[in-house]
Amino acid sequence: MLLQQNWVSPHWAWQSLGKPFLLFVFLMLQTADLEARRGHQFVWKTGHWGRCVGDCGSGGLRSRAVWCTHAEGWTTYHANCDQQHKPESQRRCFKVCDWHLELFEWEVSGWDRCGLVSAAGAEVGAEACVTAQHGLQRRSVRCLQRLNRTVVASEICEYFTPQPPAEQACLVPCPRDCVVSEFSGWSECGTDCARSLQHRTRAVIAPPLYGGAPCPNLTESRACAAPGCALGEEEHSYSLRVGSWGECRLPHPKDVELAGRNMRDLGSDSGERSTPGLHGSKRHHHAGEVEIGYQTRQVRCVRSDGKHAVLSLCLQDPVPVTAKSCVIPKDCETSEWSPWSSCSRTCSWGDPTPGFRSRRRSVRSMAVGAGKPCPELEEREACSVGGKELLQPCPRFAWRTSEWKACQVSLLLGQQDPHHHRHVGLCGGGLQTRVVYCVQITMEPGTHRLKEVARPVDGKLCQGPAPSSSQVCHLPCPAECVVSLWSAWGPCLHENCQHRHGARGFRMRQRQVIVDPVGTLAGCPHLVESIPCEDPLCYEWVVSEGECVTDHGRCGPGHRILNAVCKSRKGEEVPHHLCSELPHPEVVACEIPCAVDCVISEWSPWSPCSHSCSSKNAEGTQSRSRSILALPAEGGKACPPDRALQEHRACNNHPCVHFFWETSPWSSCSEDVLVTALNSTINWSGEATCGVGIQTRKVFCMKSSSGQVTPKRCPESIRPEAVRPCVLPCKKDCVVTPFSEWTPCPTACQPGNATAVKQSRYRIIVQDSANGGQACPDTLYEERECEDIPICPVYRWKTHRWSPCVLVPDSVRQGVPGQTEACGHGLQSRAVTCLSEQDGPADVGDCVRWAGAMPSPVQECLIPCKDDCTFTPWSKFTACSSDCETTRSRRRSLTGRSRKRDKCQNTEVYPQVETEPCPCEVFTSQPHGNWSDCIIRGGPSELQLGMPSHGASKECGEGVRLRALACYDGSGTLVEPSRCSSSGYIEEPCTVPCPFDCKLSDWSSWSPCSSSCGPGVKVRSKWLKEKPYNGGRPCPKLDLKNQAQVHEAVPCYSECNQYSWAVEPWSPCKINSEQNSLHCGEGIQTRKVRCVSIAEDHGGETVPNALCNQAEIPDTVQKCSLYCPSECAVSDWGQWSRCPQVCDPNIMQTRTRQVLRSSVSSKPCPEDSQMKPCILNQNCFQYQYNLTGWSGCQLGANASCGHGERRRLLSCQRSDGATVSMQLCQRLRLEKPVQTSSRCVVGCAVDCQLSPWSAWSQCSHTCGSGGQMVRGRSVVLRAAGEGRPCPEQLTQHRSCPVKPCYSWLLGPWSPCRVQGGQCGDGLQVRNLTCVVHDASVSATSRPVENALCGELPSKESVLQLPCSVPCPGDCHLTEWSEWSSCELTCINGRSFETTGRQSRSRALIVQSPENQENCAGQEMETRPCSGGKCYDYLWKTSLWQDNVRTVWCQRSDGMNVTGGCPLRTKPAEVRHCSPACRKPFSYCTQRGVCGCERGYTEVMRSNGFLDYCVKVPGLEDKKADVKTIAGKNKPVNSKMHDIFKGWSIQPFNPDGKLKMWVYGVSAGGFFIIVFLIFTSYLMCKKTKQHQSPPPQQKPLTLAYDGDIDM
Fold it and tell me: Where are the compositionally biased (Basic and acidic residues) regions (predicted)?
């Protein structure tokens, strides 16, 4: 029951669950199908990558948009797309920053050769090309890191500069076919009757280019026309063909035992006997030792037709060697690779490029025989160290500079003289220098801020140009204080008018500072002087007189009313109460003369004071006068006496002693204890104020004549200050860089006997100390010996005894005819081991690395045969005497049975004595090359950029010049130059002339100003003392008129009122008494006029009249009137009234005079007023300021260049052009021009500055003549202005001592030699000789010992070449042809390429007709060449002969070639008529027109072409002149003939084809014939039944008589 239930349950399950299960499976399948369809309907789309953002370097990040789209194009949710294939939206990238510019650069290779680009779907053929075709050339463009030249992403370099194009269009010349030469002549045929071939060859002149046709066959063969051989009479020659040597193999053990019993040991060099045996057999299992085996070759006999023959037909005496000893090849064995070294990259540049690491392996055993040589022993690969974020940033380098040194002014030309010691006060333009050095900059970890390390490093690490180490500077010139003239003495004043006390005052005078002092300790002189005086007044009454008013009547006594105004001593009006203490008169008496009184003039002004001060010996006085104008009448008031007409008074009665304040110079700024300002220290960043200090000075009262006096004598109000505040300068400590790294000690090992190597370091002063700061250290350069320098290990090869001579095994040798004796050539070996310095065993690799090439472990040896001559070893050479002409010799003697053989006694073949010249130790030297430049010794050694120089280099003076030596021994062989001279040079003293600058005298003194009023010029000059030579500083531009003088002119200004005309009073009017007895009326009066200086110091001093304005000289004589009694008397004319500032003729100028006495009679008085118009430039003037032009740039007194000042002067100019006093313009208050001076610069004469000489370079040649050593210097600062120019010589050369050149000289290759046979495999051999020469073009080489040339080149590859000699019937290649001439590819005669090509070829020669089909092939080589030419290829033709001519191609140099000429332009070789001659019996004549065959004459058309040919009648039995008959039967050219010409029966058209009617007639005739035949058949059939046999007839014999109609 249970079992039944078990079976029923699945059935029920299927019944109940089957349908839902099927439905579920169906739904799942549908879902999967929908998923699959959806996978095809929805796809991911991505946008472009954005810019790299983030930190500099490899830590950047770039993003892009990713979205899901339907196949129809609309965007949907990301969930609809397959998430497994979702593209990335972010990617790490390299973020480029600006400072990466110095780390990366584009590397652009050269353009490749231009390649042909064909059009789409079309091929460019030779017919389509005319001159050139379009092509494309490419080049490699990569972004590299500069430091290790590794490739990085192009985006990094594109950040700074666009990527250079990698492709460009170009032109490709048209395809050029292969060009070959003409064939050579045919080779000769053999004389025998055997079948043979003869051949001819040609060579390739130019290879096919740009898709041209390949080269044709270079050989042609043809069978020789030899007579056939009779049966069995063939004659053949036989040749012995020698095969190549087989593989080297070890002998069979049986052969070893056999050889051990039969071998004689004759190969030991030491003469000791050793156990006989076959060497190599006992050392099979010892690695690294030599095993000697044997190798064989085949020998066959070949018949002349190439077939093999019996060997006996070719054997000869001696029998060729078919077996020889050889070395079993062993490959080089190396150790396992060492572990990789640490990565070379220990820091991060911020880029993804890796570093490098390396590993090594050593040699365990050397290659033996033909074994594989040793592989590379060192390997490098790129590497990276872990995560890049773990690496420290790599150092960067940048230029840094110290502060500028003080400005140094070079001496003036005049101061270059060594006798001058006035080098104080140099100023103006100069030079200042600074040290430029390279420092390392690193990035602080975690930030991108640069952290500077001030330690200097090698200047080669800094990229880009170094900053300038010198510049032009300016040192201000000291300027003396310039003051104006003294003013006039002022009145006697109280010191302080507000606080008046005491009866003592001072009179003062002043002067102003015109130019402030610059750079001088002495300040300006005192500006105020004073004189003590009594009764000082601060104010005074200024009184003006009114008119005289008579007391009674019109004349007689009267009075004047005085008007008084209170004024200060400065002329300013003040209130009257200030003058109330001072009395002043209000009325003064006067008198008006009556008609009969004497009339006297008014008092003249007081004359100038005769002295400026009063002393015991002289007092100042001044006077005034009046004159008699009219004489009195009788009864009138008489004239006063003469003494009453003059008055005198004392003036300037103050003493000549004056007082002034004098000060000492200010002290230096010192700290004020009252001011609590701390003095700080300044760093190297600039100036700063470090507190306030004080300066003090002493103040004295000085007396002009006797020196210092008590301060009471000087006014206290103008006492100068004795203390003032000042700014304390900051202390500047010395700033020094840290010491540089020690210069590296050599990392490579040094020999044990090498001299000690030193290393050094230095530091640089960045800022000098100042103002009491910390001083600079004394040590700036340190040196020490290198420690722990690795000493090179010493290893050496040790060679052991040579083994016995090993021959070919007997079993091999006995199989060869004629070789039964165990003798002849073999090989012997020896062990070579490596020893350390302590003679202990060492690895072979150590000796390979440190001891050079391994000595040969194998050498050839000889076991003499029974019939050979044997000798003792050579003896030592005999001793030499001291004479160089002697010789030395050595001997040997015959041994054993050889002494009895006659052939061994032949000393020519077997010499027993050898002689050679003795080595001579006498050497001779010969000068070689030119003298070197003159070398000044004693200059500083080579300096690195940034290292301070120790002393200036010597540029001129005594030196030496050198000439190289070549040293020869007694035989004329070049030897080391040290054998003749320790230095290898001839030395000779020489002199480099020193440059001398232009020398000028000192400046002369300034000339006086050229103008006494207004602007002028003053001049000074220098004279040429010595001209420059040898490149000295040139002279300034000299005066054109006088070539030896230099002028300097500067503007000057003379005050117009410095000098004035001084006039004395007029003399009394002098009446001519002869004409006038009354002594009255008209007369003359005179006065004296002189020019005086109005300067204070020289006031009133008479000077030459030329200094005063001559146009304004006063009159010295004038008319006067002495009025007679009773006449009307008038006064002198007053001054003319002023005209307005703007002259106007309508405005009048007036003057008046007064009536002093009325007339008694009725005679009227003369006029009392006059008028005249104001006319410009006559009595009316206008004034304006006038500016002169700018002067030249004026420098300080001791300056020769630099900053200066240019000036223009201001003057007052009158409208008539005259220069007048500035006061006239000032009174009018005219506007002054603002700028009268400006700064300017005079270019400095900068001398050229050169760097020190570098160290001498290595010789350009390691040996031989022509080697040069060079040293150079560079221009640090170029000359400017009139500075000393740079010398032309910036490099110096000297020849190197002529060292001998040792080299292996290879001899020419021998012809191919087949050892023991006539053909087959052989060797080409050449000799190798060690020679010495001097490497010159005409050098003669002399053989010397091989040891001097060092290691031998590999003998197998250099001295022997396998070759083959063809046997009869073999195919073989010819020798290479000569290289063709160098040819350029040209377009239209112009070179398309810079390098040309030349070719050579060799062809395959077939000797046997049987091998003609099997032998094919040829070889061609092409190489680039320089100096090529452009060649043209042109078709050449011969003359026509029977419508045929020869056409060939010729190169422009006359060479006939095949190929090169374009086929499309090839001329025809066979001439054809046009149109073609298709008429019956016609042919093409040599003239290129159609003619008729013999027996026919031409019928021509009107256009000259052949119409048809007509048979010439009557030529059956004779040969007629066709041309003559044709001429007779030529149709008449008439109109009738032309009309009926078309009707004639002409079956052919002009083109030679049959006409249509011919076909119609033929067809019609055919049908007629068929009809006739059919009709005849019917008729014959009907009558045949009744026909009887015909009667027998006699046969008819026909003979052809030559008739054409037959």
Answer: 262-272
Domain contains 1546: yes
Last residue of a domain, one of 1315, 1342, 1364: 1364
Residue pLDDT, tens place only, 666-694: 888 887 766 544 444 444 444 445 778 88
Range of the domain at 1215: 1181-1243
Q: Give the pLDDT confidence of 84-95 residue by residue, as tens digits.
A: 889 998 888 878
Q: What's the rounded Cα separation, in Å, for the pair 980 and 966?
A: 8
Radius of gyration from C-alpha coordinates of the chain? 65
Domain count, the chain: 6
Give the Cα separation of 419 and 1034 in Å (integer).
20
- Per-residue tokens: 750: 């040094």
pLDDT at residue number 79: 87
Burial of residue 88 (number of CB atoms within 10 Å: 0-12, 13-18, 19+): exposed
- Do the Cβ atoms of 1346 and 1330 come closer than 8 Å? yes
What is the 8-class DSSP label of residue 1502?
A: T
Q: Please write the tens of the pLDDT for every residue from 907-951.
A: 888 899 999 888 777 888 888 888 888 888 765 444 444 444 444
Residue 467 lies in a domain: no
Distance CA 983, CA 960 (A): 13
Q: What is the mean pLDDT of the chain?
A: 78
Distance in angstroms (rounded) separating the CA atoms of residues 52 and 91 = 9
pTM of the shown model:
0.55
List Cβ<8 Å contacts ≥24 apart for 1586-1589. Answer: none
Q: What are phi and psi of 1008, to 5 degrees?
A: -60, 155
Measure the N-to-C terminal CA separation of the chain; round to a whole number of Å.
132
Residue 139: predicted pLDDT: 92
**Cα distance between residue 1116 and residue 1113, in whole Å:** 9
Look up tokens 């033909």; give the residue: 370
Contacts of 884 (CB under 8 A, 6+ apart): 918, 920, 921, 922, 970
The DSSP output letter for 509 is E
SS3 1128: coil
Give how far Cα 108 sits from Cα of 1114, 1198, 1322, Å: 94, 58, 50
Minimal CA–CA distance to 1281: which of 467, 415, 428? 428
CA dihedral 149, 151, 152, 158 (to 10 degrees): 80
Tokens of 461: 């690490």
- The b-or-e profile of 1213-1236 (16+ CB within 10 A means b, else e) is bbeeebbbbbebbeeeeeeeeeee
pLDDT digit string, tens, across residues 1185-1214: 888 888 778 777 667 777 888 888 888 888
Return left, alpha or beta for 652; rule: phi > 0 is left, psi -120 to 50 is alpha, else beta: left
For the cut 70, the answer to whether the pLDDT of residue 1521 exceeds it is no
Q: Which residue has the higher pLDDT, 483 or 1353?
A: 483
Q: How far apart are CA 1402 and CA 1419, in angstroms?
A: 5
The size of the chain, in residues, is 1606
Say if residue 1491 is in the same domain as residue 1559.
yes
| Residue ending a domain, choose from 1310, 1340, 1364 | 1364
Angle at CA of residue 1470, ends 1465 and 1474, nearest 5°:
85
| Cα(1213)–Cα(1194) distance, integer angstroms | 26
- Asked if residue 1230 belongs to a domain, the reply is yes
With CA atoms as reference, report the closest residue to 1394 among 1384, 1379, 1403: 1384
pLDDT at 1541: 43
Among residues 1358, 1300, 1361, 1362, which one has the least CA distance to residue 1329?
A: 1358
What residues contact 602, with CB distance under 8 A and at least 6 apart? Answer: 626, 1131
The answer to the question of residue 1196 being in a domain is: yes
Pair of tokens at residue 926: 């010969």
Under the banding of pLDDT at 50, 70 and 90, the label for residue 1435 is: very high
Quickly count helices (H) and strands (E) in the chain: 10, 103
Q: How far is CA 1518 from the centre of its chain?
A: 97
What pLDDT does 1078 receive?
67
